[in-house]
């Protein structure tokens, strides 16, 4: 899975996504905000910021521990950022979730930091030479190519991301960066609580009842409106057999993050609307039809188990 991530108000914001055929999504959805210190893209971004700005971000957001591998010391963080600057890329080794790794590189044409490109996946797929040299080389190359195409709008970046990693883009219409982020936030607010509960129930059912739950799993997903992903019983069976304990735990964390993210975005959107003038807010408001499509994209993240 590949992402384009930007920094806003001292946090990382996922603005573009592209998926491989066998992508596993333990965290992240377009518009989600997370801390910078424990994700590869975040460390790539921090490595390009002045030391004073890094201090300000840490003072405001802290260095929350998510796993035993998370950096929680400011001195250790600065050491890591020095390494990132030297090698040109950042890594995440089980720092956000156990069993998942990522490699990221900053997009900073002529010193103008725009964000970071990152590719992530299960540790079992990110090992040895692939994790240590192959993926860093790919991500660094993509970041350099993007730096030479820095004038591209958000939607253009979505397709560049997909093309760079031979993935499929998740965005198909043109809009400004601000409008896109606002729509992503609105979409996150509209994630149907019933869908969240249904997915949790499905996963619990699969874990407890094994193969007997596969048929019920298929039927359950038929009840959830989706435009992009069709799940067959064979695909579900393959996914179920391939899941490791770490991956199942990551899926549970994803579902829990939906609820937490919902509350975070309520607060953020309220602040966003206060800062905007009436006209500016009107320009960033999306139509009901667009918001329904965005909502489907968000729920689509759970389309595969």
TrEMBL record:
The keyword Oxidoreductase applies. SUPFAM superfamilies: ALDH-like, GAF domain-like. Residues 181-249 form a coiled coil. InterPro entries: Ald_DH/histidinol_DH, GAF-like_dom_sf, Hstdl_DH, HTH_MetabolicPath_Reg, Tscrpt_reg_IclR_C. One of its GO terms (molecular function) is oxidoreductase activity. Keywords: Coiled coil, Oxidoreductase. Residues 1-152 form the IclR-ED domain. PANTHER family: HELIX-TURN-HELIX TRANSCRIPTIONAL REGULATOR, ICLR FAMILY, HTH-TYPE TRANSCRIPTIONAL REGULATOR RV1719. This is IclR family transcriptional regulator C-terminal domain-containing protein. It comes from Halospeciosus flavus.
